[in-house]
Amino acid sequence: MTSKFKKLSLTKQILLGLFLGALFGLAIHFLLPQGNFRDKFLVDGLLYIVGNGFLRLIQMIVVPLVFFSIASGAISMGDTGAVGKVGVKTLAFYFLTTAVAIVIALFWGRLINPGSGVDLLSIDASGFEGTEAPNFVETILNIIPSNPIAAMAEGEMLQIIVFAMATGIIVGQLPDKLSLLTRIIEEGNTFVFSLTDKILLLAPYGIFALIARTFAQLGFDSIMPLISYMFAVISGLFLQFGLVYLPLIFLFTRLNVMTFIKKFIPVATFAFSSASSSATIPVSLQATDDMGISRKVSAFSIPLGSTINMDGTAIMLGIAVIFVANLYGIELDMADYINVILTATLTSIGAAGVPGIGAVLLSITFTSVGLPLDGVALIMGIDRLLDMARTVTNVAGDIACTLVIAKTEKALDLDQYNSTVQMASDEF
Ligand code: ASP
């Protein structure tokens, strides 16, 4: 059995981990009686240690991975003009796809009108504290680290990106191409690469435990009254994938989109189980490597996307606004919709790609259009499930944009894109 399992490709092992984890979690939830064995030993003991142990291993490499791969990418890019061009293109794509996402959400929400006819009292609302909207000027200023070591310690992604870019550009301009600094960065890069490969071998087990624990703890009672909202969000996420990303890839690259989907599966599985774009960075970079995308583009665009590009979260925000407005019988006008588009696009820039951040953005968006904050509490019961789903779309948006930019920048190895090896770790 073990050897048969090991013979499967890592991608298949991961998928199996996800599937079996979901089944195991459901079995725990519905078949095992509450008590110490189920709750303390299994759910908060064994599954928690294995799942979060794996998640922490992945998180352990995020900061060094982002730093070394961006710095080494910037060294090899040589001139700052190329760095700037990729940067501008990436930002443009990210803003555009997020704006499209929120517009799709508002149209889709208006079309299927989730929440109309639902009785408010049927939903269990646990308290939710609102959050102040971040000051836009501060958000922009915050991109520059006043202390790069603190930025790394706090995992401040945008600040780490800025410092790594600056380091790479300057080291790349040093007269001695084999300087000690260059070698440290290049070897640091190789080291984190190999570490990532090794850690990912544990992914099937980690994902099994993460998913099993989530399903074992899911509040299934909250699902029924919110089913129309859940349906609207999940179908909206699919619309973004099918009507925005795949056509974008096809139009700009003419590549086979099925290959993209196949190579995206391990990333989707990890994003779904971890509900964190930031923790998914190492897996996304593996996938972009397997797609033949040069690290010169991906090392920069993937970490950047994990914080500033949250299309799935934008979809949830748009649908939630319409759902709650319907629940409370509040009429929204054009100015409100424009307000939602602006708030959702701008607030998501500074938000880290970590679990549950969408709920914080939601309270900011609700405040901006005058919807009751109790509305956020209403949908919190099932937010984890939607968080998992929207994280997949968030990451899909990062990789789709990266692929398009790599193709247009001639930073794509077509043979590698079309090769059947799905994960570098499959070769171990
Ligand atoms: N968990 C999401 C992410 O990491 C953010 C959110 O809460 O919507 O991309």
From TrEMBL:
Membrane topology recorded in Swiss-Prot or TrEMBL: Multi-pass membrane protein
Keywords annotated in UniProt: Cell membrane, Membrane, Transmembrane, Transmembrane helix, Transport
Domain of life: Bacteria
Main location: membrane
Pfam family, any one: SDF
Family annotation (Gene3D superfamilies): Sodium:dicarboxylate symporter
Positions of transmembrane segments: 14-33, 45-70, 91-112, 157-174, 199-220, 226-252, 264-285, 313-330, 337-354, 360-382
Subcellular location: Cell membrane
Name of the protein in question: Dicarboxylate/amino acid:cation symporter
